[in-house]
Amino acid sequence: MKFIATKENLLFGVSAVQKAVSTKNTLQILTCIKLEIQDDKLYFSATDLEIGIQCNVPVEVIEEGAIVVPAKYFFEIVRKLPDSLITIETVNENEIVIKYENSQLNLKTLATEDFPKLPDVQGEYQLSISAAELKQMIKQIVFACSVDERRPLFTGVLCEVEKNNLRMISTDTHRLALKEGKIEKGSAKGHSFIIPAKILSELARLIQNDEEICYLSLTKNLATFSIDNIIVVCRLLEGQFPNYRQVIPTKYNLKIKAKTKHLTEAVERISLFSVNNNSNTVKIKIENNLLTISSQSELGQGYEQVYIESDGEPVEIAFNYRYLLDVFRVLDDEFLTIEFTGSLSPGIIRPVDNDKFLYLILPVRS
Amino acid sequence: MKFIATKENLLFGVSAVQKAVSTKNTLQILTCIKLEIQDDKLYFSATDLEIGIQCNVPVEVIEEGAIVVPAKYFFEIVRKLPDSLITIETVNENEIVIKYENSQLNLKTLATEDFPKLPDVQGEYQLSISAAELKQMIKQIVFACSVDERRPLFTGVLCEVEKNNLRMISTDTHRLALKEGKIEKGSAKGHSFIIPAKILSELARLIQNDEEICYLSLTKNLATFSIDNIIVVCRLLEGQFPNYRQVIPTKYNLKIKAKTKHLTEAVERISLFSVNNNSNTVKIKIENNLLTISSQSELGQGYEQVYIESDGEPVEIAFNYRYLLDVFRVLDDEFLTIEFTGSLSPGIIRPVDNDKFLYLILPVRS
To answer: What is the four-CA torsion angle of B244, B245, B251, B257, rounded to 10 degrees?
Structure first.
């Protein structure tokens, strides 16, 4: 194998596949990246057997071939290379040489035949969605997933395809986020599947250009996302997601409208007294057009008052402040609404003038 | 006590004294900040008994007094306050109230009489130096200090006052940095003292305005630095600093001149192979106008060639790459020189056209 590449293209490739490199040391080959020349392009691949990422960049091919290099060191080398043309060439079956300017680095390589082949998925279900829309959906959904690996289903995002809609739902059983987006083309109607949240987060990171289209292909067990020159393959989570529809209240006794920024800052300050109290609790009291947030701990106590628009009965309720801040931080909208049914019923947070997002948060007993 | 302050001034004060707050939990009062009204100003003080910092800001005084608050929580509160006027008022002997807009926070306080008094130093030796020059000196000196508390002397910087010069020297016994600066006024001629490196680093951080003058007052055991509205007090390190003059070579067999940036980047890349070898070693070979840096480990090997100006005999020598990068990163000069006396003798690195800085680095046997 021999090719000439720009530093920029090499860096793009190694960075794109980085998150699929195994960080565990159980199998050395999974801590590596495979580089392969095919059709005038250099393909980077990495997989930890949970996620696989492949990416290609243009290079000047002198001789075809493939190599497997330790990901960590190859990334460090590429990151520090000068901004010039880089020649990479096989010296023998377990060594490459990286040449630039007046210098050269010889790096040990591993056997290419040991590197796992990424599954070539041509799923029966296929759909496409704007990359920008998908990125925004992922941002507003993944934060509400559980990180507790003992309940793996809740570390994933339920995706439902209905008419031209892709609906994503996440929950850690204390709160639930739901977001809808528009499918451009699709043959997956009526289908539902569960994708690990960390794969979606990585996908969002890989979307650099909002103009792109993301193609999703599904088999019974696997999902493949293609965006421009990058492919992400992952295993779907198996199991029955709970019926989320029955927990979302269909009516409310009080609806308020508030400035997202005002509520966020007030909760941030008052929560200083919640960090040390029992369950990260802040109390919320709504009377007429005044929302009072308060908290106390052995350090002291505090309250903040925020002016709101309100319609309905007064309420006193308590929430985990982290679950409030989590959603405030992903809302780009200037105003939000919260619907209440009582002190012991969930609150429903929505952006104003946007029915595509909903966040349900369970109250805590204070 | 009652006063009205801007958020900006409160934040300046708590930030300035932060590094003197104890992070150990042995004595609760040392994890606190004292706030005191004196002469229309609010004084912030903190000390962990090794370093004491005091700072004052203008406030609107309504009633004099003093309080002691938990540093961590007070800092968090101040950081998150809105950009408006803040009223702070004593409620009773162990509680204050912080009021802003429509909100208020009540914070528990501690007894002011338990807070250690910062020593009031009127030293017999006094000198002043430009804050900008002092900051630059500290940057180029402290990195070569030891961090090994078992040899406390080397965690300090030797300061020697001679004529109108302040000379700072640091060493961890593997390398030595020496920097000279100009004293504006001084009565400390012929005096030498050792200041803990971490105090100097903190002092450099506190110098925001390069136009300022730093006043230093010394007693036998204590140093006090005053810069504008900030005072830093610390204990001097006791002991006999080794005679550094005798280790600095007075002649050389080879002197080279190289571009600082080129050498830095070459060492950064080649050192990737040094991280896993015996002693972080890179080899340097100089012949005519070519400097070759090389290294090897079980991952592979590499070399880089850098064009230099050179005058003298060829040399092959090996250094710990970290000690090279450390000094390259604090040199602001485009070119540097290195003087060699042989493979087993120290190298001397200096900026070109600047005789105020010198860095000695011991070779390693390769």
So the answer is: 60
